[in-house]
Amino acid sequence: MAFKAFHVVPPDGAPAEQARQRRRSLIGGDLQARRANGSPSELADPDVLDPVFRPSDFEVVRQWCQRDDGKPVVVEIGFQLGEFAAAFCVAQPEVAYLGFEVRKHFCEETAKLLRSKGAENARICLADARPILAEVAAGGRLQEILVFFPDPWWKPRHIKKRLFSEHFVADAHDWLRPGGRLLLKTDVEPYAALGEAVLRAHGGFAVERLADPHAGLPWTLRERRCDLHGYPTWAVSGIRQ
Q: 184: left (phi > 0), else alpha (psi -120 to 50), else beta?
């Protein structure tokens, strides 16, 4: 699919309509609505945090991001089964990893995998990262934000659900420290073009489509599958200026 066709979005409306569209793009709705009308998930693993409904878990996440020990905080949005998370945390024990995933099963499986690898430098959350990070990472708390193989949301009526948007990139710029990186990997070339275009349009990032599609990092399960079947992948890096 051509980039133009993939990237078509409806024009922005009034500020109130823009705010409504942003709320609708969140998984489960915004925090205020979820906390007022929802209830905690029944989690079988005590190492899975629920910062939406459990104040004690939210405090853990806040302290993890607002740490004063100098450890760089790396956030992964959508870690799926956690293959990358486990390899990354073992290889870089000096990093404080924080993962977000909206599927309970993936969270519980990843918690088991991290324990089996002895990775103690990770915390994982059952939550949409965006509203949580808005409360705990504002003002430049993060060293890196990793977005690996996000859902392209192909249908026009689903475009609002795409993670990469001008609003997300603006938020990420606020959450990252100067010199911090927003890294996108995808096997959908139009999504790579979208990510690169949105990053460049913001103006606050040094943007590069990387020659190494793996960005020198452990491979995700998706990358292994793409490699097995001969499918290309792309990586786009944005360094906060």
A: beta
151 is catalytic: yes
Instruction: Determine the Cα–Cα distance for residues 115 and 106; give it in Å rounded to an integer.
Output: 14
Measured on CA atoms in the order 231, 197, 167, 29, is the torsion positive or negative? negative
Taking Cα atoms as reference points, which of 99, 120, 126 lies closest to residue 44?
126
Domain 46-240 has CATH 1.20.1250.20: no
**Annotated catalytic residue within 151, 171, 174, 187:** 151
pTM assigned to the model: 0.90
Long-range pairs for 224-228: beta carbons < 8 A, 24 or more residues apart: 226/187
pLDDT tens for 150-207 read 999 998 888 888 999 999 999 999 999 999 999 999 999 999 999 999 999 999 999 9
Between 37-41, 127-131, 186-190, the lowest mean confidence (pLDDT) is in 37-41
Question: DSSP string of the chain?
Answer: --HHHHH--PPP--HHHHHHHHHHHSTTS-HHHHHHH------S-TTEE-TTT-HHHHHHHHHHHT-SS-PPEEEEE--TT-HHHHHHHHH-TTSEEEEEES-HHHHHHHHHHHHHTT--SEEEEES-HHHHHHHHSTTT-EEEEEEES-----SGGGGGG-S-SHHHHHHHHHHEEEEEEEEEEES-HHHHHHHHHHHHHHSSEEEEE-SSTTTTSPPPHHHHHHHHHT---EEEEEEE-
Put residue 32 in one of left, alpha, beta given phi > 0 → left and psi -120 to 50 → alpha: alpha
